[in-house]
């Protein structure tokens, strides 16, 4: 393990009241690396992301970004440090336009003009619709706005919670190719993704979460023959 991981989570315990969900989770993500967090429904994947971004306070353990602690900080504090989350609910402002939502990504950090240019390069469809009210867009288009807004703030680490969730195959393909482009551009990501093919294809490493622990981890290189083993580890 290298000491200068972009993100390092060590022995984190967290949950909701008496319901302890994470029972000592450790993981790290290096700069420009994409790590996929796999696990059955309810295994605590979203809980990990919410604990890293500060929506949930860990009761034990350490979370470090660029070697400095962030655990216990409120979401606006971790955001200022560069932890940017796209949650399963996407958290967009439906009454605002595409461009207004994108600009919100820059409130704390990032160059607005450059960010908008980059967003419309990643998502040409959004450029055509910058004045459209977000609540009138399809689920796939809204997911693009959410990703675009996250990129606007030039995250140190992007936490993505099921970016392909609920999208039609065509949009899944589109999101996949955008994520490949983000990877080429060196965006560091911790990814939760039910679409195993997409997750293993895009990421450098995977982790399997069960019973509040990381029970298995590995590199995604030369993994073709091991998909069944991974599925078994997740679900059985
Ligand atoms: N706000 C909450 N209050 C109480 N319990 C919660 C809350 N959010 C999640 N939980 C519980 O924590 C456990 C882990 O939930 P979490 O959402 O982290 O799972 P997940 O792995 O993201 O699942 P999914 O794949 O379905 O999104 C579940 O048992 C869930 O019921
Ligand atoms: Mg979840």
Number of strands: 10
Percent range of helical residues? 25-40%
User: Can you list the ligands bound to this structure?
Assistant: adenosine-5'-triphosphate, magnesium ion
If strands are numbered along the chain, what order do they take across the biggest sheet? 6-7-8-3-9-10
Architecture blueprint of SSEs:
Blueprint: E1 7-16, E2 19-29, E3 34-38, H1 45-53, E4 60-65, E5 68-69, H2 75-81, E6 83-86, H3 98-104, H4 112-122, H5 124-128, H6 139-152, E7 157-161, H7 169-184, E8 189-192, H8 196-202, E9 205-210, E10 213-219, H9 227-235
Parallel strand pairs: 3-8, 3-9, 6-7, 7-8
Antiparallel strand pairs: 1-2, 1-4, 4-5, 9-10
Helix pairs in contact: 3-6, 4-6
Bound molecules: adenosine-5'-triphosphate and magnesium ion.
